[in-house]
Amino acid sequence: MTYLKRNWMWLLAVVLIGSAAAGTFVYKSKCRGVDACAAAEAESHERDRPSEPQ
Prior knowledge:
This protein is mainly alpha-helical. It contains two helices and no strands.
């Protein structure tokens, strides 16, 4: 019985660590989704070439 409990605890630990790692990866990624990537790309080009001369 304790062997089964130990296996479930290991499985739970692996799932929790994996979900934390995946959440961190998604949080730290620069763009989330295609629209966000397109917006980030357009914003970077806008910074390179300002529309109004200074």
